[in-house]
Amino acid sequence: MNKILNLIDKVIKYLIITFLTLMVVLVFMQVIFRFVLNNPLQWSEELSRFLFVWISFLGASLALKQGQHLGIDVFLKLFPRKLSKFFIFLSYIFILIFLVGISYKGVGVLNIVSRQRSASLRIPMIYPYSGVFIGLFLMIINTINILKNMVFGNALDEILDGKTEDYKIDGDTTKYQE
Predict the structure, then answer these.
(1) d(CA 83, CA 139)
(2) Residue 117: what are its φ and ψ, rounded to 5°?
(3) Do the Cβ atoms of 68 and 147 come closer than 8 Å?
(4) DSSP secondary structure string, the chain?
(5) pLDDT at residue 132 in the model
(6) What is d(CA 21, CA 34) in angstroms, rounded to the nearest whole number?
(7) What is the pLDDT of residues 86-136, one digit of tens each?
């Protein structure tokens, strides 16, 4: 399972790099066409926005897996280690519930936008919006995998100690209360 997830992560990284490069080129072209040639491209801004949505949600799934989302752990250090482990596990349960809830409610949005087309490119809006749901799906998979590693592995200790393969955490190494 981890090999498949790592392969998916590599594909996501290449997609993000490709989309970001394309977005930079499109924005640069738009500036040149608008201010130098005085003939703005109608579609480049819209495509850049769509690429940004994909970059954001694909990147969010990688950040979740790598433990790079913003978090406040100063309160965890006030509690004994076992209680800190419980709070971390509970936070990932809440994350999973939130992601599943957003995905469930978002299906209705997909039904609505599947009949709409974008203003400039005239593509079905389901393509830009599908980036949100693919990102959410990947975040759900990563959260389930993290929870599995917490239950059957030593992910909780690794998170508390800041030493994991996926969690490249630098910084504070303050010990938790025993």
Answers:
(1) 25
(2) -120, 150
(3) no
(4) -HHHHHHHHHHHHHHHHHHHHHHHHHHHHHHIIIIISS---SSHHHHHHHHHHHHHHHHHHHHHHTT-S----TTGGGSBHHHHHHHHHHHHHHHHHHHHHHHHHHHHHHHHHTT-B-TTT--BTHHHHHHHHHHHHHHHHHHHHHHHHHHHSSHHHHHHHT--SS----S--PPPB-
(5) 92
(6) 20
(7) 888 999 999 999 999 999 988 888 888 888 999 989 999 999 999 999 999
pTM as predicted: 0.82
CB 175 within 8 A of CB 78: no
Count of Cβ atoms closer than 10 Å to residue 11 Cβ: 11
Among 24-33, 81-90, 98-107, which is the least confidently predicted range? 81-90
Residue type, 51: L
Q: How distant is the alpha carbon of residue 24 from its chain centre? A: 20
Q: Where are the domains of the chain?
A: 49-161
Could you give the CA distance from residue 135 to residue 47 in angstroms, rounded to a whole number? 18
DSSP 93-145: HHHHHHHHHHHHHHHHHHHHHTT-B-TTT--BTHHHHHHHHHHHHHHHHHHHH
